[in-house]
What we know:
Largest sheet: 3 strands, mixed
Radius of gyration: 16 Å
Order of helices and strands: HHEEEEHHHHE
Number of strands: 5
Structural class: alpha+beta
Distance between the termini: 35 Å
Shape: globular
Amino acid sequence: MIADIPFWQRKRFRDMSPREWESLCDGCGKCCLTKLEDEDTGEVYYTDLACEYMDGDTCRCTVYSTRRRKVPDCIVLSPVVFGPDSMQDFHWLPRTCAYRLLAEDKPLPDWHPLVSGDPDSVHDAQVSVRQRTVSNADVDEADWEEHIIHWVL
């Protein structure tokens, strides 16, 4: 029966309701980390620097509804702009990101809250950045390279 198939396995991004789309986010906080891109190679490096509005304990944005006004370069994913054809524009998303996994036609991992039914499963699986970040507002931009990390997938 089709109703037994989870929405993320039977719907395209653009057919999801806003609530379904938002629920794909596992709450890992990796997208809120400052990333540095090598201009020559295009390689993206993650840092342990989080947006000043990310709560380091919950890995959630504290100004979610107004984030674009407060952080003009915050990238807001939407089903309209995101999909398999646009993955090259979102190559910076972590390999564990549900949006990326589904765009690449891969399954959600067992620790994803939609699969586990537990919103803390992403933290319990140690996939999130919970309590492993520093606010980028506290670090001079000239020192950001010193904060490159290699533990984000």
